[in-house]
Specification:
Blueprint (H helix, E strand, L loop, with lengths): L4 H11 L2 E8 L2 E11 L5 E7 L3 H8 L2 E7 L7 H4 L1 E11 L2 H14 L4 H5 L3 E15 L3 E6 L3
Antiparallel strand pairs: 1-2, 1-4, 2-3, 3-6, 4-5, 5-6, 6-7
Length: 148
Amino acid sequence: MKTDPEKAVRELLDGQSLAVLATQGGGQPYTSLVAFCPSRDLKNILFATTRSTRKYANLSEQPRVALLVDNRGNKASDFLDAMAVTALGLARELEGEEEAGFRKIYLEKHPHLVDFISSPDCALFAVRVSKLYMVSRFQNVIVMELES
């Protein structure tokens, strides 16, 4: 039975709480874990960070990012059963009404982060996703273009 890629991506992104965010600063890549939330249409992925972090500084210098979400369990069976999605896009700090709308979506998934995201030093970002790479069964790759 063939899997619907968009449905599989949606289930993975809805089922996981953390992503690896890859940024770049000073010519060097940098990765960090972030609590994330996809928008309903999968065209944006939200995450929050404080303005004093290296990731914030990197995002200020270079907005191109990659996010990796996976469901591995650190078992030998992962080579056949695990799935990973890499999202490529541009990150931007949200403001005003747009920030308020996305904040609500973010807190639906992460209500335990309400104090963190309400801090004056916290910035909510949206990654405008241009492309998704879904990898399953260790080497089966499906590419989904999201920008029109």
